[in-house]
Each structure stands twice: as structure tokens, then as C-alpha cells.
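Record type: ASSEMBLY
Status: queued
Input:
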Amino acid sequence: MLENHIVEINNVNKQMTAQEVRLCGLLLQEHFGDVVEKVGTHLIRSGVLTLRALAHETKLPLDLVKKSLCVLMQHGMCAFGAGRRGPAGPVEYHIICERILHMLRYPRYIYTAKSLYGDTGELIVEEILQRGQMTMSSTVKTVADRLTHNMPEGQSMDYSEVVSAFSRLVETHFLQRCPPMASAESSSSGADNTPLPAVTQPTEPEDHPECYKLPYINLTGQGKRRRSSEDGEADPRAAKKAKTDSSERGDEGIYWQVNFQRFHLHFRDQAIISAVSCKLDQTSSEIVRTMLRMSEVTTPTHAAFTQALSANEIFRALPSSYNIARPILDQYLTLLVDDPMEFVGKTGDSGGGMYVVNLHRALANLARATLESVVQERFGSRSARIFRLLLRKRHLEQKQVEDFAMVPAKEAKDMLYTLLSENLVQLQEIPKTPDYAPSRTFYLYTVNQLPTARLLLQHCYKTVGNLIERRLYETKENKRLLEKSQRIEAILASLQATGAEAAQLTEVEEMITAPERQQLESLRHHINKLDSSENQVDETIFLLESYINSTQAPR
Amino acid sequence: MTEVKVKKESTDPVDIENRIKELCQQFPHGITDQVIQNDMPHVEAQQRAMAINRLLSVGQLDLLKNSNGLLYRLKDAQSTSKVKGSDTQEKLVYQIIEDAGNKGIWSRDIRYKSNLPLTEINKILKNLESKKLIKAVKSVAASKKKVYMLYNLQPDRSVTGGAWYSDQDFESEFVEVLNQQCFKFLQSKAEAARDSKQSPMVQRNSSFATSHEVWKYICELGISKVDLSMEDIETILNTLIFDGKVEMTIIAAKEGTVGSVDGQMKLYRGVNPIIQPTGLVKTPCGLCPVFDDCHEGGEISPSNCVYMAEWLDF
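Status: finished
Output:
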């Protein structure tokens, strides 16, 4: 009987590579500290574990392990399910690694929210990302307080503005409700056949019909400005008040999280639009942007192309600033269809022509351009020529490569062997005789896009890990200096608050010598550079991941 | 009783040879042994054979074989004079080289065809070369291989490599210059089309250039010492496609329009790349030659990486 109720855990990790595990460990440590990092890394490596096993193997006290798991679950990085012994046995936990890797992209999410919905949107997304899950009322209050803090004296942010920004984020699906957890019933009876509730099945948030429904909350007022002198006393009272607040507001138990999928779709669309704009022109990219906007909610994830749109609909939906005539629009659409990159395809003639955006093809082209760019920067433009040649012509012999690429034989050999040793190019043997004698075998060079993309993705993970480690190293090396500068700043701040004279202030400032100041400046410069390059590598990671997922998705 | 003196026809070897030569001239297709016998019945077989051999060795007679037997043919006077003084083996080798036409023939192939030992072949080849009857041409495919052909023949394109090779050296700079010139031409055409601000279809069509136009432009530029054909220009344009700078379409064209080959024309257009250099290559790790050896705690690690240090200070 118990067998009938054993529920398999879906979403168990695919095997994580060493580089991915290393990167996850670094991210967990930076955001949550050593204990969570230890628990998380161990759980990634082991797959699924029960609480007891986890505590035993990491040799940490049980309550610390519990707290770490809570933190991870709050952020959606850890999930639990029925163990191997069925619902009656201990629950098993596993890590969802891609959520940890999404932490790299937090700055990009926040920036997108800012560009779409202004400072309010930016702060909402930032708060929710920081806390993992939040109720609407607490988010609104916190954001209003923060905005008020930055406004000039006497002004404050009204709650309704924040509420409207929040609702817009929900309407466009950037925020979604966390899937509710069914309460677990005690599994005392195995004999009677009452089906146990499906507590163990991790559900997709979109499976719930109320996923994007805003709760009715009773929230009026304005943001409160925090006075620094009241900090000490105000906080505990404010905290207690917050707990009772949400139950009063009417949305207790309804938690919201960031819908990462939606952000990823947005990034994908951005990449496609900018590619069209580079290849063709601004107007064509606007047309593609309109088409993508119209099919935002109707296209399933990982679809190969959007829903078919008729030219009439596109014409009506174009932004009014682009005043182009109908026949001109038709010409642009024809040009988009004829372009060798095949961003847009024509699927029918009704309604003035039915057009789709070829998502998978566009992603493949972007991934291919990424691969070519890496080869070009790393090995030179002639190696890049050979690489592109092999991508187009699939299989070629040594002699043919030399002839097509117009590279002298010796150099062509050298370049091909270098690419081969880096695994960017593969060698295919076609024997003429069964004994594979070298003189009687064809050796063909070839490039396979998907495995090469995977290889480069691992390189990217390793690179980001290297950048993070270097940043930690730089910080550690200059720890003494950083601590000193922090102390000086604290002294300065307190002196200023108590109204000290200018002479005292300068005396304190001079405690940091000029070379130390310079060192601090260069340290700041280094850290910024490392940070921004992490984001740049993340863009590459996003393109390659989207391409790989789109190729592997079941259709 | 009168003694009848039967005048014996002189069996002077020279006379026999001359008679045979006259017979050959009578029958330009060649005479068989039987014909000679019929003509000079008094000549013994041995003498006949000697005469024929002498003529062969001197090179005035050609020995051929047909279904009925051996044929003897008078050799061309001119070619006779050429190889005068050479012996049979040399003549044989010369024959083989002549047959190879302008593609030339490798010394090993000569050996197979003539069944002569290698040392002999080499001697003969040296001899013929000194007499300026044949020449050696280095093949561009395998630089150690030498093919032999007649002195006054032009080597075939496949041996010399065509317009891109001069003296067996691939002219990389020449190809590079042509590459850049073609690209500049196409790019300026595309820009002119873009600036014309006409309807998009017209804009795109005017940014195309046929391979014939590009060929004419390059010829007029006059940067090439060698005459380039349209196919040569098309190979250059193909390398531009593989550089990602140009794209090509083929359209149907009426036979007879300038530049059309087999009813189609190739059109080329300069294009922009669709992405900027990707994020990974903006970091030192993306270009690092020792990327695979780098790990924390090792000789090469992110903490002590020299490339990173330089890059950060930049």
C-alpha cells in the first residue's frame, strides 16, 4: 500500500560539473556565509539527503543545518520531497543548482526592473531578491520607507505609488506568487487507503490559477523616514509592528517571488532585437520588437518560434512614433524573411501574410556568433576564418581547408592543430579499407556547434569563479587597510554628527596617508573592474545557456 | 656455254637500310616485316633484322605493334634530328615525358612506364635536361616532388597553383590586399545604399554587387600583375564570406547578361556582425593560454595571475 503513495521527486539534479559546483560554492559563501556554503556544497555533491544524514556528514550541529536549509528554501534553492522510504519516511532535500547560478544575474534583473519601471520597480525587485519571498504589504512598506529616506526633507513616498508599481510588475508576470505548500498530515495510517496529500510534489508556480492575482490589501499611508538617532529604539518596535501588520492588511500567507523565467525571456528578446538592429537597421528591429511584444504571453517557453502574426496585426500594433506606410512595412517584412539569418519566417498568406519570429534559429545564430567571436579573439582572424569555414561546410579535408580559406599550407596546418588541441574542432576518420591504415583513410575536420557551446559554457563558469576568487584575494590582501579606512570613516561620521570643528576633521582625515589613499583608490578600481567583468561574462553565459536549453527542450 | 653471271644484288647493309626507308615513305602508315621480305626476297632474315635494328637505334625508324604484328614507320625528320645522338633509353624516356603533356610526370612514374632502373633514369634525365629538351617543375602540392615536362610547354595550373602562387610561394600579402580591396568596395557600396534613404527594398538591392562588377573594379585598380579571372575573384569573395564580413545570394539571370554563368549571377553584399565581441573575451581568462592549468592553490591561480594583475592596473 505504501508503494502506491511513493511519489518520485522530480527535478533531481542533473549531474553538476566540477566548475558549476565550485561556482555555486563561491556564490553561496558570498551571499549567505560559510555555514550555508558548507551545507549547500555538500548537498549539491551528494544529490539527495535526509536532514540527519546531512548533519552527520557535514559534522555541523543539527540546528545550524536546519537554519541553513531554511535560508536556502526561502530563496527557492532547496526543495524537499518524499524520501526513498515513501511519505512515511524522513524527508529528503536536494538543491536546485540553477537557482544558485541565477544569483550571478541579480544585478541584471534589478537593472532591467529599473529601466522598465523606474526606481520604485528597482527597489521592489531588489528587496524581493534579497529576502527570497515577501508578502506584498511588507514589500510596499519597506520600499516606501527606503524611497522616503532618499527624498528631500518633508516629502515622502505614498504607498499607493508603490502598490501601482508592484501591480504592474505582477501584470507583466515579472513577479509571481510562490506556490502554496499543502500542509503535511501526519502519516500514521498506512493501512487505510486515504490518499495522502501531495505535499511532496514540487509544483510549478504557473500551475496555480491564482499565480498572478493581486490580493486585496488594505494599505494606505506613506513611507516613514528613519531618523538615525531613533535607530536603536525604533527598530524592535517596528519589527513587532511589521508582524502584526501583514495579518491586518489581508494578505497573510501570500508570498511573492521573482519570476526568473520571465526575466530570461525579456533578455532573450533584447538579444534578438539588438542582433536585428546590428544586422539590418533600426526600423526592422522595431518591427521585431513589436512582434515579440505581441506574442509575449501566448508563446510557450522554449518554443522554437512565436505564434503566427498577420501583417495587419503588426501594422496596427506598431508604436505610433514609427510612422511607416503599409507597403513599406510589407517590404521590411519581406527583407526580414529573405535575410540569411532567418530571424523571421513567413508561414502563410492570410491577413496580408502570416509571420513568426524564429526563436530557436535566432538563438543558434547568436550562439554561433559567440563561438566565432571567442575563436577570433583568442586565436586570430585567420583561425576564425577557418572556424567559420568548417561551420558552414561541415566536413573538409586538410587540402580543401587550405584552398577555401586561402591560407598557406603550413600555417593552415598549424592553426588547425591548435584548434584541435583546444577541442574546438574535431577530426572524423573515414576509412577506405577496414584496417584503418592512415594512408588509406580520409581525415575530415568538423565543428559541432552544440558540444562546443557546452565546452565554452564550462569555460565561462570557470572564468567567473576565477574572477570571484581574485576579488576575494584582493580584498583579503588589503584587509588591514580597509578596516583602517572604515574606522576613520566611522570616527569622522560621529564627529560630524556631534558638530566638531574643521580642524579636528582634517586631523582625523590625515590619519590615512597619501600612498594609502592611492592604494585604496586602486583597490576600488580593481574591485569594480572585476565586478563588471563578472556581469559581462554572465551575458555570454546567458546566451549559451539559452541556446543549449532551447536545443535540448522537448518539442 | 656461256656462264650466266647472275648479278647478285648487293646486300650492302646501307642499301638495305635505304630500301627500307624508301618503302616506309611509300607506305606512311608503316610496313610490316612481310612487306620488306616481299620487296627484297634475296635478303636474309638476319641481314634484314640487323638493318632494321640499326635504323631503330639511329632513330630513323619507329617500331609499332598492331594486331597483325610489328610495324615499322619512318620517323618524323624533325624529331629525328632532335634526339640525334641519344640512345634508345633516352628516346624512350623522352617519349614518355612528351606523352604527359603539360601536367608533367614524376620520375617514379617514368620508371614504371619504361621499366628502367632508377639510376639509369636519373642519368638520362640529367642528360636530357642539359640538352634543354625537358625541364623540371616543382609541384605546388608537394614541394619535394619534381615533375618533368618538355622544355617549351607551359605548366598546367594545377601544378603551379594558378594566380596565387609565384615560384611555388603562396602570395599571402597579395591575397590579403585583394581581400581588403574587395571588402572596401562592397562596404562603400552598402553605405551609399544606406545613405540614399530610399525604400528598404531598393536600398538592399542597390547594396549588392555582382561578382562581375567586383572583377571589373579590381582589374581597373591595377594592383595585380597577373591577369585575374572572375573565378579567382570569386574565391577571394568566398574568403570574405568566411570572415563573416560579406554575404552572398544567387539570382537567376538571363543568358547573355554580362557576368552571368549558366543562367545565374552571384551577388555580394557587405554586412555587419550581429553581436559585439562577447563578454568572455573581455576578461584575461577568456584569452589565457594556460587556462586549463589554473586552479586555486596551484602554481597558476587566480590569486597570483600575472595577466590579471596587468589587466587590473590598466
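Annotation: The first helix of chain B runs from residue 13 to 26.
Annotation: DSSP finds 14 helices and eleven strands in chain B.
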